Amino acid sequence: MQASRAIPGNPWPHDMVVEVEDSPHAILDLLWLREACGLHPTGADLPPLLTVPPAGPPAAAPDRDVLRTWQAAWPFVWDEVLEHAGRLRQGDVLHGIAELPPGSGERAERIRAFIGPTWRDRFGDEVFDDGGYRDWVAADADREVAHHLQYERSPEYVALAALIPAWEAGLAKVITIPCRGPFTRVVGSAALLVTADTRDDPDAYRAALERFVEDVPRS
Prior knowledge:
Distance between the termini: 25 Å
Strand order of the largest sheet: 1-2-4-3
Radius of gyration: 19 Å
Number of helices: 9
Number of strands: 4
Shape: globular
Helix content: 40-55%
């Protein structure tokens, strides 16, 4: 979000840019997989359960040994995916990619660097070739669109008094996830992860932005 031009009386700083990203695809994969496959990973600061859970297990559900492996790996993949999602857009990674030969190793490496780590890279994507998964992702996208159309004012404007100090402390991206209740996690030096419920609640969102100022790593 950014003010298109300086407007007298508009409290939004003209040079303040804050990106709001709703549920990056690699994050949705992990959130759906955890519940659809009945995984119960443990770790620090893991996200709460989905607001709208999967309708059922995937058609290609793996056996118990695989599920145990997946459960142990889930928090580590989550941290990798979240760390990448918290980075600012890296358009320079794709610079000059059109000049690289299709199928070349360098071209593939640049694309992987831009997309970042995913569950599919490590364990394949067979489990996601599932009608229930596709329906769940489509329904989540529909809910996001309908929800945004209800706003008369964005949560960022409502929480502007807390957003400005967070931006001054380095905040450039807010990542939302479709999980239950309040949840906040500072991601690197420039991003904040919150649930949609947190962002929708002015008091909870202000508290999350204040937490960013308190907890963001200082260089």
